[in-house]
Amino acid sequence: MIESINSVAERVLFAESLEEKLKLGPLRGKDLKLGKAIKTPNFPCRNDLLKASANGLRADFPGITRIENEKDRGKMLHFLANHELLAAELMALALLKFPNAPKEYRLGLYDSMREEQIHTRLYIKRMKECNVTLGEFPLNDFFWRITASVETELDFISRMNLTFEQANLDYSRYYAEHFKIIGDKSTALVLEKIYHDEMKHVGHGLKWLRYWKKVGQSDWDAYTGAIHFPLSATRAKGVAPFNEKARKEIGFDSEFISRLKVFQQSRGRTPVVHWFNPNAEVHVRTHATGKFLAINRFESAIENDLEILMTAMSRRDDVVLFRTPPSLSHLESLQYAGLDLPDVISVDELGERKLGGLRPWAWSPDASDYLKPFSKMVSDKAKEKWRSPVPNRWLSKKIGYQLEENLNLTDLNRGLCRDKITALSYLKGDLIAFKPGYGCAGKGLRISKHRTNNLESWLGAMIRDNGFVVAEPWVQRVEDLSVHYHVNDEKISLLGITKLINDHRGRFRGIEVAPKWSKLLSPEIAEFLFKESSFLEWYQKIIPDGLKRLLCDYQGPVSVDAFVWRDAKGSLRLRHVVEVNVRMTMGRVALELQKKIAPNQWATFRIEKKDTYINKSNHLILNDPDKAREFLAIWETNKNEAV
User: Fold this and answer.
1) Integer angstrom CA distances of residue 524 from 2, 192, 297, 570, 602
2) What would the pLDDT profile of 572-630 be if each residue is shown by its tens digit?
3) The dihedral of CA 329, 334, 336, 342: what is its sign?
4) pLDDT tens, 275-301?
5) Burial class of residue 609 (count of CB atoms within 10 Å of its CB; 0-12, 13-18, 19+)
6) What angle do CA 99, 104, 109 make, to 5 degrees?
7) 350 and 374 Cβ atoms separated by less than 8 Å
8) Alpha-carbon radius of gyration of the chain
9) Average pLDDT, the chain
C-alpha cells in the first residue's frame, strides 16, 4: 500500500530519530486529506542530540574563509544540514496545518519536503567524511521560530519558498564555486544539486503567490505585504553575489528582481534612521532671531537633490528617509558601482519598527521637530536618541570664534560684529571678508576694502537677520583643509582630514581625498605643517580637548575647517580654526564615501549645477539625475593614483 502524504509528514515532524525523519516516502505519495489542521508544536520531535540549544549557545559559522580546514568544513556543513532538516520539518508542518489546500499545491510541497530530506542526507554523508556528526555543535531553531507560526498557505510560501529558499539561490551557488576552488568536488556537487532543487522550490512558491495574491496586485507588493517583522525582503537574498540569472529563469518579473536587488533592511540589528536637513543654519537663524526667513529656490533644491548623501554615513541595515526617493534603476547603478545601500524609503514606509538611533545632518530645530514622532521607537540602549535642538551658537560662526578664544588663537584683526559701526571699523585699507552669522559653505560672503552704501545696506540686513556678522582679513589662501571628528560618549575621535576645493571667493566647490591625506599637499606645505606648525599636536590633542569642553552632552559628527595662507613677506601661516561645524559636512561625506567605494584611491567629490554639468566616464553621479532639480553630486575616482 502506498504511504500517504500525511503519514510521511507526520513521521518527518514527530519522529525522534534522525533515521526515521529522513526515511523517504514514495516518489508520489497518496494525498489523503486530514480534514482538520493540527496545532503547531513548540518544536519538531527530536532526540536529545538533535534538539535546539535551550541555553542560547550558538556555534560560530566558519564561512568560506575557513573551509580549507577539514573540521571547519564539517562545521559549515553541520549548519547547512540543520537548515535542510528544519526545512523538511517545516514543510511537513505545512502539509499537516493546511490539509484543504489545493491538491496540486500539496503534491508540490510534498516533493519539496522529500528533496529537503535528501539534501540533509547528502550533507550528513559529507560531514561524516569530515569527522563531524549532526548534533556535535549547538543547533539553532531560527527557521522554525520565524516560520512555524504561519496561518495561511500564502504566509508559508512567502516565508519559506520566497524568503529562505530564495536566499539559497545566492548561497548555494556561491558556496559551490568556492568548494570547487579548493578542490572539494564532492561538496560542490551536493551544493549544485541543492541549487537546482531550490530553483524548483522557489518557482513553486512564485506560482502559488500568483494564485493567492489579490487581483491586480504586483508580485512584489503581494510578497512584501505577506511578510512581517522580523522578516523582510532582505532575507530573500544572500550575503553573497546576487543571482539575478536564476531569478529570471524561475520567472520573477523585472520589477520584483530590481526591487529585491536594491532592497535593504536590518537582519537583526536595530537600524539607525538618517535624515538630510542641509538648511540647518537657516532654521537655527529663525530660532535665534525670531525672524522667519523662507528657504530660497537653491536651498530647497539642495534639500531635494542631495538626500542620497546620507547613505555615506549609513550602514547596510540602516534607514535613510527620503522626501523624493531615487528610481530603482538609479539605485541599481549605485550598487553596481560598489556602494552598499541602506534601506531607502519615504517617511510613511518606516512603520513601527524598533530603531537603533536617529541621525540627522544636524540637530537643528527642524530635525528635532521632524524626528520627534520616532523617538518612542528608539531602543533604550541606543546612544543616538532623539534630542532637542543643539544650542544656537553651535550652528553659527560663534562656536568657531569661541574655540579660538579658548585656545588663545584670536586676532585683533577679526571679530564678531553685532552692529554696523563695529563691522565697518575693521576696514583699514586691506580687504576684509564679512560672513553672515549663520552662513555655511561660503554663502552670503561679502569682501570689501572700502566703506560703500551697498556694503552698509548689506551689513544692516545681515546683522538684522543673523544677529551678527564675522569680520576677518581676506588673505592669500594657499590650502584649505577640513579635519573630521566624531563625538561618542564624550570621547572625540579623529577620523581623517580632507582637502577643500573653494573658488576664488571662498565658496565651496568640492572635496579631495587620498589614502594618506598628506599626499594631497605640495612638498612646501607638507613641510610647513609637519615641521613648523605642530599640526599633529594641534589636531590630535589641543583642538579635540577644546571641543570636548565646548560641546557638552553632544554625540555626533564635528568638523574643523582650517587654511594655510601666505603673508606679505611670503611666509606660510596656519589659521588653525576658521569654522567649527557641529553637524555632518560635505568633507565627512567624502571621507565616508572613500571608505565605501574607493579605499586606497584618490578621489574628488563635487556638487555641480545640473544644467552645466558635462558627464565623464570616470564620474559616478550619486543622486538621481532624472529627479534632480538643480544640483548633481559627482564622485570622481582617479584610478591612476591608486596605491
Assistant:
1) 89, 60, 42, 12, 20
2) 999 999 999 999 999 999 999 999 988 888 999 999 999 999 888 889 999 999 999 99
3) negative
4) 999 999 999 998 888 877 778 899 899
5) exposed
6) 65
7) yes
8) 31
9) 90
Strand 272-275 relative to strand 319-322, pairing: parallel
With pLDDT > 90 as the criterion, what percentage of the chain qualifies?
69
**Residue 69: helix, strand or coil by DSSP?**
coil
* pTM for the predicted model, two decimal places: 0.75
The band of 59, judged by pLDDT with boundaries at 50, 70 and 90, is low
- With cell 537583526, the residue in question is 268
Q: What is the separation, in whole angstroms, between the first and last Cα of the chain?
A: 71
CA distances from 292 to 284, 289, 367, 464 (A): 10, 8, 17, 12
Quickly name the fold that domain 476-641 has.
D-amino Acid Aminotransferase; Chain A, domain 1 (3.30.470)
Answer for the pair 223, 233: CB distance below 8 angstroms, yes or no: yes
Question: Which of 299, 313, 393, 318 is closest to 557 using CA atoms?
Answer: 313
pLDDT at 643: 41
Length of the chain as a residue count: 643
Q: What is the DSSP letter of 418?
A: S
Residue with cell 588673505: 475
Residue 82 CA to residue 50 CA, distance in Å, equals 9
**Which backbone phi and psi does 5 adopt, to 5 degrees?**
-60, -45
Whether residue 625 contacts residue 610, with contact meaning beta carbons closer than 8 Å, is answered with yes
pLDDT value at residue 34: 61
| Domain 393-473 superfamily per CATH | ATP-grasp fold, A domain (3.30.1490.20)
Nearest in space to 273 (alpha carbons), one of 153, 423, 404, 379:
379
Amino acid at 335: Q
pLDDT value at residue 32: 65
